[in-house]
Each structure stands twice: as C-alpha cells, then as structure tokens.
Specification:
alpha/beta; 9-stranded mixed β-sheet; 6-stranded parallel β-sheet; 27 helices; binds adenosine-5'-diphosphate; binds magnesium ion
Length: 824
C-alpha cells in the first residue's frame, strides 16, 4: 500500500501548507493524474475501488478550485483514505507475516521505481513497448498477441517459485532456491568444450560457483562487487554445489521479475525468450493496466468477492504469492464464463424473438418406409432422439438442437431422416461438415440410405456432384448434391444456380455452403456436423441462409452437462447414449517406450491381415510447426527403418488443405497401410479397415481426445486396438492414462478430463466465435451456477445493456464474442 501512504503524506503536507497547491512540484493534479492508476491497482477490495473511482483522482481539478472547495475536497479524500487503511490493516498484517517467512526481497518492492502510467491506448500495437521491434511483434502475432491489451491478457502458463531465499551455506541440492549475494569474480570460461560464463557468488555464509553454458557474453554483465540475485536448481559438480544456468538479476532499485519471487512462465514461440518476455509483460502491466478500468458492475464484484480487474491482471502476471495468483485467476475465470453466459443468453433471445420458424408436417408413412428399408432397427436411444427432433420440427419455432453421440452411435441415420422430412415438406436441407473428406463420406452415406429401396438414376455416381434418387418414400425423385471447395468454378456455379432455383433438395458440403454466393431457394433444415469445429458464428451464418431454418448440430465429443449448458446454452440437448448392438469395445493398452518394438510387430501383423493403422505423434504444445517437423521426422524414420515394405502416409497441420484431403482419401481407399499423423487426423473419419490406433506421447493428450482417436478404429465387426505409448510417468499421470484401459464411456472420460484439465484445454482455445476459456477450470464449473445466476439477473434487469453503468460491460462483451461478431 505504498501508493496510499505517500498519497496521504502529500495531502497532509498540502493541508499544512494551507491549501496553496505547493506540496508537490508541478502541482497536486499532475501528481494525482500520474499516480491514480497505481494506487487504484493496489486496492484489492472492489467496494473500496468503486469508492476510489468516485473520487476521480485521475482527472482531478484541484488546481482550479478556491480554498473552500479545496478544503472540502481534501476532507473527502482523506476520509476515504482512513476508510481504506482501516479495511486493509487486518489483511496487511496477515500478509506481511507470510512474506517475511517466504519471500525474498519485500523491502525491495518498497524501493521500486514509481510506476509510469502510460497514455497510449490499449489498442496500440505492442511495438510501443521499448524493445518490441516489428520482427518481435511478428513472433508475438503467432501467439495472437498484437495489441497492448493482448499482452495484458497473455497469461503465464505457470509460475516457478523462486521466493524461497537461502543463505549460501544452507543450499540444498536438487531444489529451486534463491540466493542474494555479491559477485566476487566473473569471467568467460571454457565449460565442457564450449565457452560460457563462470562466476563466484557469495554471502556472509559462504560462496558458490555459478555457471552459464554457451553464454560467454554474460560475463560482461557482471562486475566484481555487484549484488546479484540467483534463482535456480542447485546441482553437484565434482562434489561441489553449483548453480547451472540459473535465472539471475542484478539487485538494483528495480522490482525483481526473474528471480526471488513467483516468476511467471509464459508460453513462447521460436525466437521469443523468457527474460525478454517477462521484461515486456512487466512494463506493459506497470504502464497500462490502469487503463483497463473494470467492466464488471461493482455489485457483482462485491457479491462474488472478486478482485478488481487491473489488480487481477497485475497479480496473474506477477503475483505476490500463490494465494493472490489464485484469486487473480478466479476473477479472470469468472469473466470468461460470465461473458460466455451473457452472450449465449442474448443469442437465445435473438433467435426466439426473430421470425417464426417453419412447422413441418411429419408424415408417419415416410418415416416408417424409410426405417423399414434400413438393414437394422434403431436403438432405443436413437428412437428417443428421433422423437425429440420430430417434435421440434413440427413447431413453428425454429429448432435449435445439439445432438451428442459417440462415434458410430448412429447420428447420421437420424440426420438423414430429418433431411428427408424437410424435403417431403418441400424445403431444402443442408448438411455441413468440417472437411471435404467428411462431407464426401456423409454424401455417400446419405445417398446410400436414401436409395436403399429406390433406384439411383443411371450414370450418376456419388461423388460426381449431384445424383437423383427415386427413393420410393416420396412421389418424386430427390436430388442430392455435394458442394465442396475443390469443385471447379464452373461446377460450383452450376450448383449454386440449381440450389438457388430449388432444383436440389439436399445439399451436403463444407464451409463452401455458407459462402455468400450460395443462395438457397428455401432452406428449411440445416444440419451441422462436428460442432466444435465450427462455433457459433458459422452456425448463425448458416441460419441466415434460410427463412429461420431448423438447426441440428451434431457432435461426437461428449460434453458434460454443466459445460454444455454454458457453451451451448442456446441449444436444446439430445444424447444418443447407446451404441448399436454387437459393437466391440476397442481393446486399449498403455505401453512404455521399451514395448514399442512389440507394438510395431503387432502393427505389422495387422497390416498383413489386410488391416490399416494410425500412428499419432506427440502433441507439441504451442507450436504446430514443431509438431509438423516432429511428425515428418517420425514418418521418415518409420518408413525407412521400421516399415520399409509398407506404404505409409503423412498428415499434419502445416500441409495445404488439398494435400491433407488427398492423403486421407488415399488412406481411406486402402492405398496406404499406415497413416502417421499429428492430432489433426479427422474426427469422424470412417476408415472401415483400420484396426490399430497407436498414440505416441499419449500422456500429452486429454482423455477425451484419446477417446476420439480410439473411435477411429474397430468400426467394422473386427476387433479394434488402441496402443498408448507414454514416456516415464508420475503415478498420477499413469493412473489417468490407465483409465483409458478400463473406461469406454466417452462421457465419463470427458468429466474426468474437465476435472483434471479444465474447459479451455478440453475444447481448445481457438474455436471460432466463442470467447476464450483460458483460465476457467472445473473448480469454476462448480461455481458455474453462481456465474449463470449473476448473468441471468443482469440480463433480466438490462437485457440490451443500455444502462450507462453497463457500457463498459457491453464493450467487453462484443470484444469477447470475437472479432467480427456484432453484439446486437
Ligand atoms: P455416427 O454419425 O454417430 O458416427 P453413423 O450414423 O455413421 O454414426 O453410424 C455408424 C454405423 O453404424 C453406420 O454404418 C450405420 O449404418 C450403423 N448403424 C447406425 N444405427 C444403427 C443401428 N441402430 N443398428 C446397427 N447399426 C447401426
Ligand atoms: Mg459421424
């Protein structure tokens, strides 16, 4: 609270000087304008913050007042200072106790330079920060950090705890520790056979050798008698303790950011280094966080006991201690979920209030004829879901339904029937899939289902654009078309025309379906497969293509109910929670690296028996480029050394879309025996002959994702196998992976995943249109109901966020609901 203390000192002095505005050079206003942000930031209690905001010190006008006015102003401000000091006293005494035990240089903080409140707007490019050149900015852009605001919201992944300070004599081998000492000597030295820096650092209790490999240039930074802070792990070299390549920081009048505290660890990309990034985030937080203000209404903050936003941002980067880091995270996670809820509520309202939907007539005759032609009977779950959908379709209100069901649970049959109903009512139906291969697959299946009894028009084969089916269900033939990006522009144009004329009944496609050029004649039903790839924006884009069509969203990712309510609060939910009878469980086994050879032999044998296999390469966090590289290397190694006589294919995210599609196509057609892939391998892809899914670095994937991978094999009557290879694991990590062997219910695994990794990880952070969930975790899910209630209450009191005090919230909402999405 140094900011508050010095503010009090200044004000007392001003009072003693008889309100002459002589207490500080340049006048009180200048001082206040400069300090207000920092003072505000040091207040953790939201109630006090709003009191502080009312004082409006950042825009004070003291200089222009007469003496009486100045007196009144002074009494007011000092009275408020009393209040805040009282309120923080208890808090402070508790905290300082903790600090004197744990933290290194609390006195250091008092000596920190006064923070400079900087005026460039938060939407300024990050290049306004000293040292961030445009080439550095390009690197940040890869992490989606472009503006100052992005940098404030660029959160550390974790912290290293360097707050434990030790005298040199008490350093313990193998632990993260910090010393503060004096440099006795520093020089360039040959370490091993490379040049590096060597220093001897000591305190009253002893000396220790410190080395930095490959960094000879560091020697220049150290001078004899400099005071230095060293943080890192202590090792042993020839029986002597040594710090090897530790973090270091010269002890000057600055706040420590690399050592002696909880040090943030940021996600990095090639060419960005931890020390630089910390320097820049620190400068940004110190200089700009005050500009954030706070968009949350203060009654919500009080009610939910949340930190003020600038304080939360400052603390999430450079926390005082772990408890503060957790409080900061709690506040920011609240924001994520709250904004998500508000947006979802608004969307639901918009849809319900927009034009009425189209009530379909459901002809029982059409349905039973379709079902009778299937080579199987529907499962009970399919029956139930079908009824839910039919009930929706009969309403004059547009359906908004999420259909969840495991891979192979039979969603496509249900969707096909819904599309048929639309056609029977004289409407067009569309099915949108995330990739061409999946779209083709759906097209083939739908054509297959619909032509069971009827006949296909001669010469028209699936995959050629359009076919006409005499289904026998309807009195007229149905036209089904495939619209994908790789069609020639001529074909596309022709298809667009036909769609516009209403000559096509069912259109299956990719993103190509929501392009401007596509004008439906009478879109009545839109089915969207693999929802999480699309997100809300595409959903509404497709919705806008029709006269408020019914929308059915399908996903094979089991989403626990709590999460579904939040993420898809705008949708009703149906679940197919049962697999068709006779479906085999994929036999799953966790293996260690030394079992790899045996696994290869197994794969080889499967391929000899006419089967195919996937090999998934480890996830490389934060870098698709590195991941692609690793997969390429693995592919080459496997092709050359392990399976020289088999046909292997490679799939990764850096390949152009057409190449990816081509490889998938070749694998599906059986031309390739083994597909080596990163995690991009298509969800939902059907390769009937694939029987083995081998996952390298399995510990790096979430359980849900592993379950998705596993769903790729054993789709036939044949037994499927999933081999999970992991490096050395902690007992907990092994326990977690072992769940895969025992549990085959995707929902159970998803719950487990959420609990262990949080929703951000679960969904991936970059789903289009939805606000990021970077910090929300399951612990927040428990309080999700609270967040929902707050959102609902606010929404009811001010549905359009028109009230003046809700303007910052409104702004934040449209920002969170993504670039391009308009808050209406
Ligand atoms: P999903 O889209 O949910 O992954 P599909 O609809 O593609 O599942 O169905 C997977 C396979 O199971 C298909 O070959 C389909 O014909 C078959 N199938 C669907 N429902 C049943 C059922 N009730 N009984 C037997 N087989 C079924
Ligand atoms: Mg499917």
């Amino acid at each position: 609270m140094t900011g508050i203390d010095s503010l009090r000192n200044v004000l007392e002095l001003e009072r003693r000087k008889g309100y002459t505005d002589k207490a500080v050079i340049g006048g009180l206003d200048k001082y206040l304008h400069k300090q207000a942000g920092q003072i505000r930031q040091s207040i953790n209690n939201p109630q006090l913050v709003s009191g502080f905001d009312e004082l409006n010190l950042a825009n004070s006008n003291y200089g222009s007042y007469g003496v009486d006015e100045r007196k009144r102003w002074m009494t007011n401000v000092l009275g408020w200072l009393d209040k805040i000091e009282k309120a923080t006293k208890t808090n402070r005494s508790q905290k300082s106790e903790v600090r004197s035990q744990k933290s290194v240089v609390s006195s250091q903080k008092a000596a920190a330079e006064p923070r400079q409140n900087r005026r460039e707007g938060l939407d300024s490019p990050i290049t306004v920060i000293k040292g961030i050149t445009s080439s550095v900015a390009n690197k940040f852009a890869r992490l989606n950090v472009r503006e100052l605001r992005d940098l404030l919201y660029f959160f550390p992944r974790r912290y290293v705890d360097y707050s434990r300070r030790k005298p040199v004599s008490e350093l313990i081998e193998g632990e993260d520790q910090t010393i503060i000492g004096t440099i006795w000597q520093a020089r360039v030295a040959t370490l091993g056979n490379r040049r590096g820096t060597e220093a001897i650092v000591g305190d009253k209790t002893g000396n220790i050798r410190v080395v930095w490999f490959n960094q000879p240039y560091l020697a220049k930074s150290f001078h004899t008698n400099d005071r230095v802070v060293i943080s890192g792990t202590v090792g042993l070299f020839k029986g002597h303790k040594v710090f090897a390549s530790p973090e270091w920081e010269l002890l000057k009048d600055k706040e420590l950011i690399h050592t002696g505290r909880l040090v943030p660890v940021y996600p990095l990309t090639q060419g960005l280094y931890p020390r630089q990034v910390r320097k820049w985030t620190k400068e940004t937080v110190d200089g700009y966080v005050w500009q954030l203000g706070d968009f949350l209404p203060s009654d919500i903050k009080t009610h939910c006991q949340l930190l003020d936003l600038p304080a939360a941002i400052a603390q999430v980067h450079y926390p005082d201690d772990l408890a503060m880091a957790e409080r900061a995270r709690g506040r920011l996670a609240f924001d994520e979920l709250f904004l998500l809820q508000l947006g979802v509520l608004a969307r639901k309202r918009d849809w319900q209030e927009s034009q009425p939907g189209n009530a379909f007539h459901v002809d029982q005759e059409v349905i039973s004829r379709f079902l009778n032609c299937l080579p199987f009977t529907l499962t009970q779950a399919q029956e139930r879901v079908l009824q839910e959908i039919l009930t929706d379709l009969k309403q004059a209100k547009a359906m908004s339904r999420l259909l969840q069901g495991e891979v192979g649970s039979g969603k496509t049959v249900i969707a096909t029937l819904a599309l048929l109903i639309a056609a029977a009512n004289g409407y067009q139906g569309a099915l949108m899939a995330p990739t061409e291969v999946l779209a083709e697959q759906h097209y083939t299946n739908i054509c297959g289902y619909l032509s069971q009894v009827g006949t296909q028009e001669p010469g028209s084969e699936p995959g050629e654009g359009t076919i006409r089916c005499y289904t026998g269900f309807l009195s007229r033939p149905l036209t089904i078309a495939l619209l994908i990006g790789s069609l020639s522009s001529n074909e596309k144009e022709r298809l667009h025309y036909k769609i516009g004329q209403g000559e096509v009944d069912i259109i299956v496609g990719t993103h190509a379906l929501i392009q401007k050029a596509v004008e439906f004649n009478k879109l009545g039903l839109a089915v969207i497969d693999e929802q999480h790839r699309f997100g809300v924006l595409q959903r509404s884009a497709l919705r806008q293509k029709g006269f408020n069509p019914h929308v059915l969203v399908m996903t094979a990712t089991p989403i626990p109910r709590t999460m579904a309510l939040t993420l898809y609060g705008d949708l009703d939910i149906s679940v197919i929670d049962e697999l068709p009878p006779g479906r085999q469980v994929v036999r799953t086994k966790c293996l260690e690296p030394q079992d790899r050879e045996k696994a290869y032999i197994f794969l080889h044998r499967q391929v000899s028996n006419g089967r195919q296999a996937f090999i998934i390469c480890p996830l490389v966090e934060e870098s698709e480029i590195l991941e692609a590289k690793a997969a390429t290397t693995e592919y080459e190694r496997l092709s050359r050394e392990v399976f020289p006589n088999l046909k292997l294919g490679l799939l990764h995210g850096q390949m152009p879309g057409t190449e990816k599609e081509e490889v998938m196509r070749r694998f599906r057609s059986g031309e390739l025996d083994i597909l080596v892939s990163t995690s991009v391998v298509e969800v939902g892809i059907d390769v009937p002959r694939a029987s083995v899914m081998m996952v390298e670095g399995a510990e790096r994937f979430g359980l849900s994702q592993l379950h998705q991978f596993r769903g790729r094999v054993g789709r036939d009557k044949e037994q499927g196998y999933c081999l999970l290879i992991s490096e050395k694991l902690s007992p907990e990590a092994r326990e977690r992976l072992r769940l895969m062997e025992k549990v085959h219910d995707g929902f159970v695994l998803a719950e487990k995943d959420l609990e262990l990794r949080g929703p951000g990880e679960f969904f991936g952070t970059h789903q289009s249109g939805l606000p990021d969930l970077k910090l929300a975790k399951l612990t927040d899910l428990r309080s999700l109901e609270l967040v929902r209630q707050e959102a609902i209450t606010l929404f009811q009191s001010d549905p359009n966020l028109n009230k003046a005090e809700h303007q910052p919230l409104r702004q934040q909402l449209s920002r969170a609901w993504s670039r391009g999405a308009e808050w209406s």
